[in-house]
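User: Teach me something about this protein's shape.
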Amino acid sequence: MRLATWNINSIRSRADRALAFLERTGTDVLALQETKCKDEQFPREAFEAAGYEVATFGHSQWNGVAIISRVGLADVETGFVGQPLFAAPGKDPVVEARAIGATCGGVRVWSLYVPHGRAVGDPHYAYKLEWLARLKEQAEGWLAADPAAQIALAGDWNVAPRDTDVWDLAFFAEQTHITPPERAAFAAFEEIGYTEVTRVHVPEDRKYTYWDYQQLRFPRNEGMRIDFAYATPALAARTTAVTIERNERKGKAPSDHVPVILDLTD
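Assistant: First, the predicted structure itself:
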């Protein structure tokens, strides 16, 4: 089984790229983030025509997550229990479209778009830390309830856990993504028994998954590594390889993120 995660940065703008990626790589399950559309706007017919089932969670042109699978799609959950609410200016608090779970080929896949945080001290930063803490509580409970569970927590985590996960540490000084509280919140999943499998299989420094569109960040390889997959012990044991698809940042109208692929044994 081949499982991938990709912050697509607008599925309606990049459906053709996603379909070409699925065909080229033979990916069975694709967890998408930043789909940026309502559920009824998702171009599901194109994916269904290619033999995939689609589950989506989107409210507007912001955020949005989805799971696309050709190995089954069952027990879909939009949001996780205890997911914090957040209120945009002038709006009522809501569960944002940042998490969707489904069982695909025996694996419980969660597509996650962790809040950005915006700036240290911003309410969104506190929201980000609470969001990660509540997710950790749920993830710990899932594993405790079934130590043999096969669960993937895949997506855009908006955390750079190591200094070499950003192109210039000084550039990010006093900004989000690298602060000790964010890194501790990310590391807490390891402490409850999950393994961040992309690092296990791609341990090299400066293997980025995101490059800003501005200032020639991609040609200069001035990027960040913020797209990851935490796996339960049973799933980590099945993970044989991980590939960061850097070439997906090239070509016409790419996302600013690239897919990360996990290969799993049967």
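Now, about its shape. The longest helix spans residues 123-145. The longest strand covers residues 107-113. If you'd like, I can walk through any region in more detail.
User: That's plenty for now, thanks!
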